[in-house]
Amino acid sequence: MTTPSGRRALAVALLLALAPPPAAAQSDRTEARLLCEGTGGVPAARRLVACEWLLHADRENPLDLAWALNRRGGIRMQAGDHAGALADFDAALRQDPRQAAASFNRAMLLARMGRETEAEAAFGAAIALDPQDAGAWRERGDLRRVADRLADAEADFDEAIRLAPGDVEALLLRAITRGLRGSPAGALADLDDAARQGPDRRDVAYYRALTLRRLGRDIEAAAAFTALIDRFPQDFEALRGRGELHRLAGRHVLAEADYGEALRHSGPDPWTFVNRGILRRARGDAAGAVADFDAAIRLDPALSQAWNLRGTVRLETGDPRGAIADFDEALRLDPSYASPAFNRGNAWRALGEPRQAVADYTLAIRLSPDDAGPRVNRGATRAGLGDLVGAEADFSDAIRLSPRLAPAYLNRAGVRRVLRNLDGAAADADVALRARGWHAETRIEHARILLARNDPAAAIISLDVLLGRQPQHAMALALGCIARGRLGQAEARPTCDRAVQTAPEGFDMAHLARAGLALLNDDAAAALPDIAEALRRQPNGAEPMYLRAVAAARENRLGASDRDRAAARARDPRVDDLVSDLFGAALRLD
Fold it and tell me: Are the beta carbons of 407 and 376 closer than 8 angstroms?
């Protein structure tokens, strides 16, 4: 039982507990607040103890409690205790829903935890609480940039920079966003400003050099990379970037030196091996290129570009099946990657598998619908399969996508010649000639169109341009023989003989031309040995079979002529036109 004096002592104790703290306690709270805040570089462990003391001392004051909870959450977040930190930020906001700092910190933590959607909403809440917080605008913009919502991101960076014009991070992020949105000039303006605000920022200097390169200002870009390397001699990304500029400018020795130095400082970096491999391939060092692509693949087996590039070198060095294996792997790793599909089509063509090539070119077109290259190659492959209408459509699409693409005009000219659209063929050949009149295949096609249009004299002039550069060009000599033969010129036979002498194995046109010349001179017996040699070289050739039919008709062996003509038409239903286009109406069988 409590005595009156005991009750009085208890009341005094209660009064003492509820009275304002003495001056010493106020001093303790001030010191604890400074320690919890981390003023003066206080170690995290001491900060945490101070925050805990405040949480106990201020548990009846919501605003002070919220402040201490937010500070403890920050310490826990830095220590990697994400669950504890999130609980503290949530508790701080329950105590004081208007505390913008806790809302911002909570958003930063959610972003760090990979909970981007919640983080974006939390930054929105922080902005609503404090619209002047440039950091919240900047961080939300960065989340939106990573999510590829570039217009929203740029709008957030605009506001961050309006609020804090000297925020180097916001300027850099807006520059990156503008570059991704196709505005390198705007990006450069931001990077110039960021460089003035933060002259020692390596990342600003690096992105500025990349942006100058994207703008085509390669000399300035190289100078920017060099300045960066002077400040940071071990910056392998800058060395790699300058090496790439050297490679594109044909300064291969300097490029390889930069790539080597980049590898020395970066250690095994797959992209530097890839870039050096590209350089070595351009220099004709196939073995060195493959070794670099091998190294890149060992370091990063998921690097589809390295598989694709190694396959390209294998195809170029005569290993189409090995190339196909590499292209298969590149596509397995990245099914949206158009380049290996296109390259695999080229490998199938090299293996004599045109239908599989067409399938891969079709895949490449689906993956990269704005790329003219796969359409040109699919068109050429379709033409070889006899689908001239489909081929013409492919070449026309390629020209629509790339109006200056000379190979598309050249190939369409050939298809239109066979389809008897000689005016269209001539127009296409003229475009191709203007683009590259020195090109052998372009001159050859031009001459064939002129022969088909019954203008052998103009064909001779065009062919002489080529023969002036390549006097032993067998096809030019063969067509020159035909053109001169149609004009009755004495030089026709010597030109044919030169064509035969220079013809590589498997090339039948030289013997075909000399046989046609003999038939134009009504000498069937002289034509037959050359026809036999042309058929030996190209056993499925329709034109030599047709000429054999002409020779049989001249010798009045009509049954043999009919059989050979039928066989020639079975091989190519257009053979009558093809032969008459070359040799004129005199050798056309009615």
Answer: yes
Give the DSSP per-residue string, 454-487. Answer: T-HHHHHHHHHHHHHH-TT-HHHHHHHHHHHHHT
- pLDDT-derived band at 431, boundaries 50, 70, 90: very high
Instruction: Specify the residue for token string 């070359």.
Output: 582
User: In terms of C-beta density within 10 A (0-12 exposed, 13-18 middle, 19 or more buried), how is residue 88 classed?
Assistant: buried
Gap between the Cα atoms of 397 and 379, Å rounded? 10
> Which tokens hold the place of 496?
């044919």
Task: Name which of 76, 66, 68, 80 is nearest 45 in CA terms.
Answer: 76
Nearest to 477 by CA among 492, 487, 457: 492
Sign of CA dihedral 139, 141, 145, 147: positive
d(CA 44, CA 52): 12
Residues in the chain: 590
A 10 A CB-CB count for 389 gives 11
H-run or E-run covering 357: helix 354-367
Question: Quick one: pLDDT at residue 35?
Answer: 78
CA–centroid distance for 171 within its chain? 27
Q: How far apart are CA 270 and CA 501, in angstroms?
A: 51
Single-letter code of the amino acid located at 300: D
CA–CA dist 43, 35 (Å, integer): 9
- Segment 1-22, tens digit of pLDDT: 333 333 223 222 323 333 344 4
String of b and e for 427-464 (b: at least 16 CB within 10 Å)? Answer: ebbebbbeeeeebeebbbbbbbbbbbbebbebbbebbe
pLDDT at 11: 28
* Residue 60, pLDDT score: 61
**According to the model, what pLDDT value does residue 9 have?**
32
Residue 329 CB contacts under 8 Å (≥ 6 apart), including other chains: 304, 307
- 2 SS3 class: coil
pLDDT for 40 equals 64
Do residues 425 and 449 make contact, with C-beta atoms less than 8 angstroms apart? yes
Structural tokens at position 544: 């030599």
Q: Is the pLDDT of residue 78 over 90?
A: no
Tokens 């930190």: give the residue.
85
Q: Which residue has the tokens 């010649």?
A: 417
Residue-wise pLDDT for 164-193, tens only, equals 999 999 999 999 999 999 999 999 999 999
Res 54: pLDDT: 78
